Amino acid sequence: MKINLSIVIVALLMASTASAQKANIGIKGGLNVYSINNDNGADYDSKVGFHAGLLAHIHLAKQWALQPELVYSTQGAKYTTQAGETKVKLNYINVPVMVQYMFKNGFRLQAGPQVGIMVNGESETNNVSVNINDDLNTMDFALGFGAGYVHPASGIGFDARYNLGLSNINETGSVKSTNRGFQLGVFYLFHHK
After folding, report:
1. Sign of CA dihedral 127, 167, 71, 77
2. Closest CA to 147 of 113, 181, 109, 99
3. For tag attachment on the chain, is the N or C end more exposed, with fewer CB atoms within 10 Å?
């Protein structure tokens, strides 16, 4: 219920902010390559996933914009033990708020904070899945850095972003683990000018 309420609130804020400024609403989606960084030195391999959602591109000044997003994101990692390969599957609703510097040719640099709300977590070994929701924190905080390009005439663009997890995703245990990942995406801005 808390997750549904949070999603509704963020969507309403995006819509009201977009209508109050020179803004465009859009859709986006793409590829994730995520892993988990552990402070005990345990090395995890990257796991491929996807992200999809909504964005609002809000012009603040001639070359500055704010871009809040509401994105479903599949994340996690994988590692191999004697029992076989284990996949840690983490699903989040992420809310990044990116500050963008826009060049006249359509290119953009961006950076900003991201709040993630975990929807589900599971660990899978040899096709046997175990729910790990109780072992993980519901909230995840990160910083995103990246670049993008939008074709001004069509509103179609692409972006590349690195998300650096700041908060410990482990609810239990003494190991600090953080999400780390790259995202490659495409987006479409409705009524882009």
Report:
1. negative
2. 109
3. N
Give the residue among 27, 13, 137 at the shortest CA–CA distance from 71: 27
End-to-end CA gap in the chain: 38
Judge residue 116's burial from the number of C-beta atoms within 10 Å of its C-beta, 0-12 exposed, 13-18 middle, 19 or more buried.
buried
Read off the pLDDT of residues 5-43 as tens digits, 9 standing for 90 and up: 555 555 555 554 544 457 899 999 999 999 999 999 889
Contact 12, 6 (CB under 8 A): no
Amino acid at 147: A
Of 29, 57, 86, 50, nearest to 181 by C-alpha is: 50
Tell me 134's DSSP state.
G
Residue pLDDT, tens place only, 82-127 = 888 999 999 999 999 999 999 989 999 999 999 999 999 999 998 8
Biggest distance spanned by C-alpha atoms of the chain: 57
Q: How far is the C-alpha of 120 from the C-alpha of 43, rounded, in Å?
A: 23
pTM across the whole model? 0.86
- The position carrying tokens 């924190």 is 137
Q: Which residues of 34-59 are buried (b: 16+ CB within 10 A; e: fewer)?
A: bbbbbeeeeebebbebebebbbbbbb
Tokens of 13: 């804020």
Rounded CA separation 122/76 (Å):
9
